[in-house]
Design goal:
Layout (H helix, E strand, L loop, with lengths): L8 H22 L5 E5 L5 H18 L3 E5 L6 H8 L7 E6 L1 H6 L9 H4 E11 L1 E4 L8 H10 L5 E4 L5 H13 L4 E4 L4 H9 L4 E2 L3 H9 L4 E5 L25 E9 L4 H15 L2 H9 L3 E2 L4 H21 L6
Parallel strand pairs: 1-2, 1-3, 6-7, 6-8
Antiparallel strand pairs: 3-10, 4-10, 4-11, 5-8, 5-9
């Protein structure tokens, strides 16, 4: 006669853990089981699109499944981000995100998703600095002279941005706070249209990325005072950093990274992260990023999440302390 002994608690737990690991291994081994959609929440063109498409090409080569770029622009990146936040958490829909996801979420804006709860960071991709640029008719030749000029004429210096609440806006306000100056904000429909007013001398200052303005600076149409990274930019090697130019500790970079919807299995998240590290170490990838003024910044999911959280806290602080109205 065979007597079946009931399993003890330890055996039951071991079987449960084994089943969970087995399920995760199956999910990992099957991924990717179909084409991957890489959502870029902006229109084609620009750094997001260039770097995102480079990443999709390399991932396609390595994963054996097509990684298809889809541009879902609108509302400053909110539409595409929401699409990924509400997608199936199976690692087949990814978001190529940038700093804008934190500026969009700052200031208690009403969004259709929760940045921290609905999205899972995968890892950093790269970053690119901004550059403090002034019109040629501005008498200040250095960053220190510009700050002194602005202090002597509160709100008498105007700056242009790509719109209210964006990185150009909040970044310039962070610069103003760090310099103890007051500037007047003039929003445009995109940073590009502000260039014409800087070149005509009707606008005194802008804070674009180095890549977007390097040709105008080199052509002498406007003057760069400092780049906002800790190291000089290879695109403008003669321009000092803000630290070198007399504003110690000030740093501002636009970053790029990958996210998925929350509850995506950690094995898939880690697998994609491993691919990111491998891709970003390739010489041709580094060269392409450098041409766009960017440098590789691979990071773990945990480190990338810390960056997102710290950025969100920083922009909320800027909004509060500057009493900005973003409506």
């Amino acid at each position: 006669m065979n007597i079946k002994h009931p399993m003890n608690r330890r055996q039951t737990m071991a079987l449960g853990v084994g089943a969970l690991l087995s399920t995760r291994l199956i999910a990992q081994n099957k991924w990717p089981s179909k084409p991957i959609r890489l959502i870029i929440p902006f229109a084609p063109g620009g750094s997001n699109d260039i770097i995102g498409r480079l990443l999709s090409t390399k991932m396609t080569q390595r994963l054996g499944q097509p990684v298809v770029v889809e541009n879902k622009g609108g509302s400053g990146g909110t539409i595409g981000t929401d699409f990924v936040a509400k997608s199936q958490p199976d690692g087949h829909t990814l978001l190529f995100a940038s700093t804008s996801i934190t500026t969009n979420a700052a200031g208690n804006k009403k969004l259709p998703y929760d940045l921290i709860q609905d999205l899972q960071p995968i890892g950093g991709v790269g970053s690119t600095p901004f550059v403090i640029v002034v019109a040629n008719n501005v008498k200040a030749r250095t960053l220190k002279e510009f700050i002194d000029m602005a202090k002597a004429n509160p709100r008498g210096v105007s700056y242009g941005t790509a719109g209210i609440g964006g990185i150009n806006h909040l970044g310039t306000e962070l610069f103003a706070m760090s310099s103890n100056i007051e500037l007047t904000h003039i929003p445009y429909k995109g940073i590009g249209p502000s260039f014409a007013d800087v070149m005509s001398g009707n606008l005194q200052m802008i804070l674009p990325t180095v890549a977007s303005v390097v040709q105008q600076v080199k052509a002498g149409n406007m003057r760069a005072l400092a780049v906002t990274s800790l190291e000089r930019s290879p695109l403008l090697p003669e321009i000092p950093t803000t630290d070198e130019a007399g504003l110690p500790g000030f740093q501002l970079e636009a970053w790029f990274g990958l996210l998925a919807s929350s509850h995506t299995p950690p094995e898939i998240i880690n697998r994609i992260n491993e691919e990111l590290f491998a891709i970003l170490s390739l010489p041709d990838v580094k060269e392409t990023l450098a041409r766009d003024g960017a440098v590789p910044r691979p990071s773990s999911p945990e480190a990338f999440k810390k960056l997102i959280v710290s950025d969100l806290e920083r922009w909320n602080r800027v909004i509060k302390e500057s009493s900005l109205k973003l409506d």
